[in-house]
Specification:
By secondary structure, the protein is mainly β. The protein is built from 7 helices and 45 strands. Strands 3, 4, 30, 31, 42, 43, 44 and 45 form an 8-stranded mixed sheet that branches. Strands 11, 12, 13, 15, 18, 21 and 23 form a 7-stranded antiparallel sheet that branches. Strands 2-1-6-7-8-5 form a 6-stranded antiparallel sheet.
């Protein structure tokens, strides 16, 4: 027999090869669960007789449910030595005894089995206990708009027409001096203004007749604004002497008290309405303020009279760009998060995590090395901020974002690019020692569309329309199935989502819908840790980024959906060599270094095909490298494929069954 069995009790090994009653039922299997690494599995129920029966019965009688025993299997190698295939514990909660045979299940207590059982559990951790790094966050430059409505009285039956009325006197003092009143405007609730660190203060400008200077905006720092003003107006008077006219004046009151006019629009009574449609750029210094006056004249003076100024379609807005004052945010290393999750699942710190830094073709720099995890509560600076995640979410993020999958070896967990688990060389040649050959197409790999990116978020801001790190969808050009291949990261990368959370700092509420979310953020190490040891990574110049409000402050560029496609393209290429853009949940106008997110996506190589081959062979030796190619000959064709599943019946080692993922078939 090629295999032997031992049971282990209290540190002593006992030969059990002849005591295992159900050898014929025992099966070893090596399987790729999801086109990643090959994992071992085995049947879990064992039946023992003879001496092993007595040893296990004695252990159970002495220690009851605290009993401890294990089972180990060995395979004879070519040198006639025994190599351990695997070892696991026996589960005494499944113990049964019919007087002749003890039946007991095995516990696959390998790290891979523990991860499989607990990967869906969500854990929460205090960020402060995860050795956070400090990110000096200088944020995004946002586009803001303060909207105003006229404070005049609305004309009955015409909601679009208002009037401002003043009754007063004009005196002749070496020339005509106007009656000056403020031009009333009121800020609208649907204005979009900074929630913190605003460079401008906006107020209502009331209607006054005492000639005092009234304002509707004041600069707290130097800022450039664009003022949009649109309306038509005309003036009427209640007397027959002279001609009435009026000026609408837009002015800036400088910090030193000087007044500077930036627009004067006149209407003379009896003429058609004056139309105002202006776009005015103004540079304000700290302490400067903006206001509007209405100057009322009459050609005959002195006179006391009533002026009525009518306004139609009034619209006033102040547009500007601004960014918050910089703050520090706690962020986490990927390995720190993975190791903490591993510790929680295993109740042990004896396990380690490695993340290999691999740059697939088409990507010129490592997106992985600059990636950090940012809990939403850290962005908001909540007291005792926490991270909420599961190992499954971490793995899904690594696969969707970087094409990395999990490999478990002993006490070590490695995240490695999927490409590295499909070696392009033959590790075992079955030649023609096969039977029961069957080729088939795996329809689950035939996809009509590919979705890539992140779940769409809803923002209460017009700036959110600029966000492009949502879901993009592409067509493979195939119409054979309705399958969709998804690379959707459970961790968010939307820079605007991060910015909105940071702007909520200081708010009392803690029930924000995003507080449990996890973000990733691209960072680079600072040359000086004066403000924080990390800075936002902005690897592209403004000229390389098109379709964005503020390309010079944008970050997380390299976590766009297109980079995620690039990281997974050879896997996607199993069924197509071209993806054609169909739709986007976000800003589809973005172009990065001359490539648009909406451009078609060519795929120049494939990791494997959609074909599968099932064979049985008398070649029972297990390949030394389970990631390499298995070759065989059939009907004059050379077939190369990767192990999808390999099954060995330990009690009947006459044959091994292979299911291969076909790499290529050559005539």
């Amino acid at each position: 027999m090629y295999f032997r069995c031992q049971i282990l009790i209290n540190g002593i090994s006992y030969e059990a090869t002849d005591d295992l009653k159900n050898w014929d039922d025992f099966e070893l299997a090596y399987k790729r669960s999801d086109y990643d690494g090959v994992l071992r599995s085995f049947s879990t129920k064992f039946e023992f007789v003879n001496r092993s029966y007595n040893l296990l019965k004695e252990e159970y009688s002495k220690n009851y449910l605290s009993s401890s025993a294990g089972i180990a299997f060995y395979k004879r190698n070519n040198s006639w030595n025994w190599d351990k295939v695997f070892q696991c514990a026996l589960d005494f909660s499944s113990y049964s005894d019919d007087g002749y045979t003890i039946s007991i299940n095995a516990i696959d207590d390998t790290l891979a089995a523990i991860i499989k059982a607990k990967r869906n559990i969500q854990y929460e951790y205090l960020v402060s206990e995860l050795k956070p790094q400090s990110l000096y966050y200088d944020g995004l430059k946002f586009q803001y708009e303060a909207k105003y409505v006229s404070g005049g009285t609305t004309v009955e039956d015409d909601a679009n027409l208002q009037y401002i009325q003043f009754h007063g006197a004009l005196q002749a003092e070496g020339g005509t001096r106007p009656a000056t009143v403020s031009f009333p405007v009121y800020i609208l609730d649907n204005s979009e203004l900074p929630k913190r660190d605003s460079p401008l203060v906006f107020t209502d400008e009331p209607f006054t007749t005492d000639g005092s200077v009234q304002i509707f905006a004041e600069a707290l720092s130097n800022i450039d604004i664009t003022l949009k003003l649109s309306f038509s107006f005309y003036v009427t008077a209640d007397n027959a002497h002279g001609t009435a006219y009026a000026d609408v004046v837009l002015f800036v009151k400088r910090a030193n008290g000087d007044l500077a006019r930036f627009g004067v629009w006149r209407h003379i009574a009896g003429n058609i309405p004056t139309i105002v449609s202006e776009l005015i750029n103004i540079s304000l210094n700290s302490g400067d303020s903006i206001g509007m006056d209405l100057l009322l004249y009459n050609s005959a003076t002195p006179i006391t009279m009533t002026w009525t100024t009518y306004l139609r379609g009034f619209s006033l807005s102040v547009n500007f760009q601004s960014r918050i004052n910089s703050v520090n945010i706690d962020v986490l290393l990927l390995t720190t998060v993975a190791e903490k999750l591993l510790e929680s699942m295993t109740d042990s710190s004896d396990y380690s995590v490695d993340i290999y830094n691999y740059v697939p073709g088409g990507i010129t720099r490592s997106r992985l090395s600059s990636c950090f995890i940012m809990p939403a509560e850290s962005a908001r600076n909540l007291p005792n901020a926490k991270l909420y995640t599961s190992f499954k979410k971490f793995c899904e993020f690594m696969e969707a974002e970087f094409g990395y999958v999990l490999v478990v070896e002993g006490n070590n967990v490695t995240f490695i690019h999927r490409y590295a688990l499909f070696d392009n060389y033959v590790v075992k040649d079955l030649s023609d020692q096969i039977n029961d050959y069957e080729y088939s197409v795996n329809s689950s790999l035939v996809n009509t569309s590919v979705k890539v990116g992140y779940d769409k978020q809803d923002y209460d801001s017009i700036n959110g329309r600029d966000e492009f790190r949502f879901t993009n969808e592409f067509s493979t050009g195939l119409k054979l199935t309705d399958n969709t291949l998804s690379f959707i990261s459970p961790y968010r990368a939307d820079a605007y989502g991060i910015e909105f959370l940071v702007q909520k700092r200081g708010e009392d509420t803690t029930d924000n819908d995003s507080d449990n979310d996890v973000f990733i953020v691209g960072c680079q190490y600072a040359t000086s840790a004066e403000n924080g040891n990390l800075l936002l990574d902005r690897p592209y110049s403004s000229s390389q980024l098109l379709g964005l409000i503020s390309p010079d402050t944008m970050f997380n560029i390299e976590y766009s959906p297109r980079f995620m496609l690039e990281a997974n393209k050879a896997y996607i290429g199993a069924c197509t060599n071209m993806l054609k853009f169909t739709s986007s949940d976000g800003n589809s106008n973005v172009s990065i270094a001359g490539i648009k997110e909406t451009d078609d996506f060519p795929i120049d190589n494939r990791l494997f095909t959609v074909g599968e081959v099932d064979v049985e062979t008398s070649e029972v030796d297990i390949p030394s490298n389970l990631s390499g190619l298995i070759s065989l000959d059939y009907n004059g064709e050379a077939v190369h494929g990767y192990i999808k599943e390999m099954k060995i019946n330990v009690g009947k080692t006459e044959s091994v069954r292979y299911s291969l993922i076909v790499k290529e078939i050559k005539s």
